[in-house]
Amino acid sequence: MYRAAVSSLAVALSMPVQAQEKNWPVAEKDGTEQASEDRQANPDTSIIVLGGRIDPYRVAGSADLLDSEDLRRFDHGDVNRVLRQVPGVNIQEEDGFGLFPNIGLRGSPVERSSNITLMEDGVLIAPAPYAAPAAYYFPAIGRMQAVEVTKGAAAIRSGPRTIGGAVNLRSTQIPTDGFSGYASGQYGSRNYFQGQGWVGADTDYVGALIETYQQGSDGFKSIDGRPDADTGFERQDYRGRLAVHTAPDAPVEARLEFVYGRSDLKANETYLGLADADFAAEPYRRYATSQRDAFSGKHDQYRIIGTLAFADETRITATLYRNDFSRSWSKLQDIDFDGDGRFDSIQTVFDSPDDNREALNILRGADSANGAVRIRNNNRVYRSEGAQFSLERPFAIGATRHNLAVSVRYHEDEEDRLQNEEFYSQIGGDLVFERQTDIGQQANREAKAKAIAFYIEDRIEIGAVTLTPGLRYEGIDLTRLDYAGSDPDRSTGPTRVRRTNIDQWLPALGVTYEFGDAIVLAGVSRGFSPPGPGSPDARAEKSWNYEAGVRFRTDEVQVSAIGFYNDYSNLLGNCTQSVGCSVGDIGDQFNGGAVTVKGLELSAAIEPRATDTISFPLSLAYTFTDAQFDSSFDSNFFGDVTEGDALPYIARHQLYIEAGVNAGRIAINLGVSYLSDLRNEPGSGAIAVNQGIDERIIFDLAGNFALTDSLSLFARVDNIFDDQYAVSRRPFGLRPGIPRRFVGGARVSF
What is the CA 508 to chain-centroid distance, rounded? Predict the structure, then answer.
């Protein structure tokens, strides 16, 4: 791989440079100058880049960009609400605030966003992207300047998970126009607050920025017997950037930037839901046995980015990065309902509540046997670090224009589990501590990964036709080390070591043909997700992904329609607490065999004008997804599966419509989100009452009033009609979406 990388780089640097002038237009949603600047600033942090300009319209594959204006219309602090604007995104809500999102792309499983490539500024950001990708840390969406989503052939560029695609979150950059700053704050129902502030400056040689983002709430649930208990959360984010660079008129632009970020999250969240009858009576109730459930996480982010930009538009970027994340989630594990010394799965209560009334009463707060309530301290530490190098070079050979992109990444990550359990007696609705096990007795193990990835792509323009062949390589070494529960300091060494080696080549080809205001596109790519360490029977997840569609854009209308077909040879199921897995160890993976996912992504936008100052923007994003198993089998993880069964938690229909009125300094926008019913388990035909999540339509309304060019007021109502709806049945019972919330605030920039 080293020889291949060096050879490719040498070839790229020696290519003749001819006819390099590029006039590719930048996609504009509303024609505002700010949107254009957002799309062109700092392209080295973007994954949708062509010749230094971001233009998802021309990408040979599915690519969507939400810029700062898209994000600020509603100014949501919940990534689930933000990503509704993008077709092809599957989401399972969980806590009502988007603290622990479950995101899939094009029908890929949604659990903890572990089946997509998740990045911040082009750098892998999941806690341990290879060894343990479940995203218990997710960057705060409220501090981002833009969100990029790529799927299909375009996703090969990111990796390692290329079946569904990639989500890249672009954070606040150092301003390029001298000294400037921004502050926003909002306050609302149940003491919800959200605020962001940054100041930055740039001179001829030095630039810097400091930023903070704060968010929190008292929560919207009430614990049995503890009506005043805090069921909310608090998030604190701090960021700093320092850059040194050459003068603006230097023949070669050189830049070295240092980035540090710290994120703290405390959330009184639980995995425990409600039985159907209790949910129907009071959906915002929490059972007494969840009173000690709480999450605490700390994330430190370090990056050093070096960039060289030449007059011929050649760009070289090198990045060193490290992410440290520690988390502890103490939550109800199981209960000895009948006092016989054997602990029973909580799920049995929700499977048959009428047959388990006494057990259900214990969940509600009835007295238990001595030490019958077990709470597990899911204590884990993660490390992720690496170095990545990329080169982008435009050149021409005769009438054919090329844009060559080459990248190499070396990466290491690990997850360290050292967990124990506590036992409580429930007396008078209170959990009274009885005893605890030694640290490490519940889980004492490490999962490690080392990976080298290589990618090369050439965008070839031949008249109206553009070909984009690409090739990615992933070489991965995975190791799982198990230690004795009685050896927390690991002085005697591991009791078992399991290793897995993976070498995978991933080709892709995208084609576009441009005629007039329309572009026809098609693509094929190899989809891949590596198995985790410690599952010797688990095979890598693989697929062939196909897509075809058309895009149309004028000054008045934008339309995109893309059909996709993902043919899995093997689907992996991940054993996590969040899905209620009770087989094997948390982190184990299970083969699901062949799966077919097909669907349609449709988006459209129009902004008719009544006058020069009054317009009526209207947009929609629709996704149809048909995801089903292609074989019959019986699995401890997937259950009894019959060929043709649909995958759980993948909605067949999703629709988001946004309609607004812009009148001078006033803007009002209505967002309408529809999600068809969901399955909790694989199945076909009508969904059983106790096995599904009902369809829902949710309305949000936002208004903005610009007092001056730099000061504006805004207000928002989430869930206008206060609909009471369920978002999940897993792992234990029904859990609700957020009730109606009023929010008001202000923004100022200088």
Answer: 23
Determine the average pLDDT of the residues in 512-532: 93
Predicted local confidence at residue 177, as pLDDT: 83
Tokens encoding 468: 């984009």
Both tokens of 701, joined, read: 């309304």
CA gap 736, 191 in Å, rounded: 19
Report the pLDDT value the prediction gives residue 14, as an integer from 0 to 100: 39
Residue 34: is its pLDDT beyond 90?
no
Sorting pLDDT into bands at 50, 70 and 90, what band is 28? very low
Nearest-5° angle of CA 648, CA 650, CA 655? 155
Find out whether 29 and 69 touch, Cβ atoms under 8 Å: yes
Q: Of the candidates 71, 101, 74, 80, which has an alpha carbon nearest to the alpha carbon of residue 720?
A: 74
- Check if the beta carbon of residue 626 is closer than 8 Å to that of residue 597: yes
Secondary structure (3-state) at 56: helix
Nearest CA among 30, 41, 39 for reference residue 67: 39
Going through 399-442 in order, the beta strands assigned E by DSSP cover 400-427, 430-436
- Cβ neighbours of residue 31 under 8 Å, at least 6 residues apart? 555
- Encoded tokens for 419: 């967990």
- Give the span between the Cα atoms of 689 and 687, in whole angstroms: 6
pLDDT per residue over 179-202, tens digit each?
Answer: 999 999 999 999 999 999 999 999
Q: Comparing C-alpha atoms, which of 114, 137, 113 is closest to residue 125? A: 137
DSSP string, 269-285: --SB-B-HHHHHH-TTE
Token pair in block for residue 606: 């129009």
* CA distances to 608, 610, 668, 701, 710 from 661, in Å: 10, 10, 5, 12, 21
Q: Which amino acid is at 131?
A: A
Q: What is the dihedral of CA 650, 506, 497, 328, to 10 degrees?
A: -40
The conformation of residue 360, written as its DSSP 8-state character, comes to H
- pLDDT band for position 366 (cuts 50, 70, 90): very high
260 phi and psi, to 5 degrees? -135, 140
Structural contact between residues 738 and 721, judged by C-beta atoms closer than 8 angstroms: no
Q: Are 209 and 199 in contact (CB under 8 A)?
A: yes
CATH class of this structure's domain 2-749:
mainly beta
CA distance 372 to 363: 11
Strand spans (E) along 218-293: 222-223, 233-245, 253-267, 285-286
- Determine the average pLDDT of the residues in 233-252: 96
- Please count the other Cβ atoms lying within 10 Å of the Cβ belonging to residue 603: 21
Sequence spans of domains, the chain: 2-749
Nearest partner of 564 among 48, 74, 153, judged by Cα = 153
Q: Taking the C-alpha atoms of 722, 728, 731 and 733 in order, what is their torsion angle to the nearest 10 degrees?
A: 60
Distance from C-alpha of 229 to C-alpha of 294, rounded to nearest angstrom: 12
Residue type, 708: T
